[in-house]
Write a structure and sequence with these properties.
Elements: H1 4-14, E1 19-25, H2 31-43, E2 49-52, H3 63-74, H4 79-89, E3 97-100, H5 103-109, H6 111-121, E4 123-127, H7 133-145, E5 149-154, H8 160-169, E6 174-177, H9 193-201, E7 208-211, H10 217-225, E8 230-233, H11 235-244, H12 246-260
Parallel strand pairs: 1-2, 1-8, 2-3, 3-4, 4-5, 5-6, 6-7, 7-8
Helix pairs in contact: 2-4, 2-12, 4-6, 5-6, 10-12, 11-12
Length: 261
């Protein structure tokens, strides 16, 4: 059973290199562009790619990603069509793909059927932002059996006990949310991040990825200097793709990767 995300981090650690994890919303502006964007990011330095399934009530997403999801839904993008597109593209990608989706579509389909379908489409991991630790058991084990790694989120407000419990259960890596609130482009990354990274380090040796609000190459460099194993960039890439097109996200991806090295 391959665990592609864990293997990716092991390989990067052996080279002493942090991971760059860009995020895009599937279907914005259309799925054909999403397929091309996945390939461009893969070529231009993405180590892992997070692919957002558009959802009508995205609680954790800021205005940029919400707007992208709305546009994608208006285009008629649905989970089925996202998985069909991913199934065609994933064999050509080196970077493992993490699917980002809310819990409702999973519940609607049934956990086993959902996991079988995303596995078949080539997804290596799963992030479910509205699934609390207490309810994650139902998906962690069946996902692990299929080689899908479910990445759990640590919030800046999480208690020490909760951080330890999440770190213990999270698969692939731990997703540290750098700010309280929703995703979005911010001028500076929350200053609590270094101490949170240290706190997580004390309870696990799993990789730590930091996301929410990272929009500049210097933010990415800063987060790596603070000790993160991965930098997750969402809104800044989604916004560029919408306004400037595919080439610009490829260049931006390269610039981020260079800054991290």
């Amino acid at each position: 059973m391959t665990h592609a995300i864990t293997e990716c981090f092991q390989q990067l650690r052996s080279q002493n290199t942090p991971a760059l994890i860009p995020f895009i919303t599937a279907g914005d502006p259309d799925l054909e562009t999403t397929a091309q964007a996945l390939q461009v990011l893969d070529r231009q330095g993405a180590d892992i790619i997070e692919l957002g399934v558009p959802y009508s009530d995205p609680l954790a997403d800021g205005p940029v990603i919400q707007a992208a999801a709305t546009r994608a839904l208006q285009q008629g993008t649905r989970l089925e069509s996202v998985l069909e597109m991913l199934g065609q593209v994933s064999p050509q990608l080196k970077a493992p793909v993490i699917l980002f989706t809310y819990y409702n579509p999973i519940l609607h389909r049934g956990i086993d059927r959902f996991l079988d379908e995303i596995k078949q489409a080539g997804a290596a991991g799963l992030v479910v932002p509205d699934l609390p630790l207490e309810e994650a058991e139902c998906i962690l084990e069946p996902a692990a059996e299929r080689g899908i790694e479910v990445v759990l989120l640590v919030a800046p407000t999480s208690s020490a006990e909760r951080i330890q419990a999440i770190a213990h259960k999270s698969q692939g890596f731990i997703y540290l949310v750098s700010v309280t609130g929703v995703t979005g482009v911010r001028r500076e990354v929350a200053t609590r991040v270094p101490s949170l990274i240290q706190q997580i380090r004390q309870v696990t040796d799993k990789p730590i990825g930091v996301g929410f609000g990272i929009s500049q190459p210097e933010h990415a460099r800063q987060v790596v200097e603070w000790g993160a194993d991965a930098v997750i960039v969402g809104s800044a890439i989604v916004r560029r793709l919408a306004s400037e097109g595919i080439d610009s996200i490829g260049q931006f991806c390269q610039t981020l990767k260079q800054a991290m090295e």
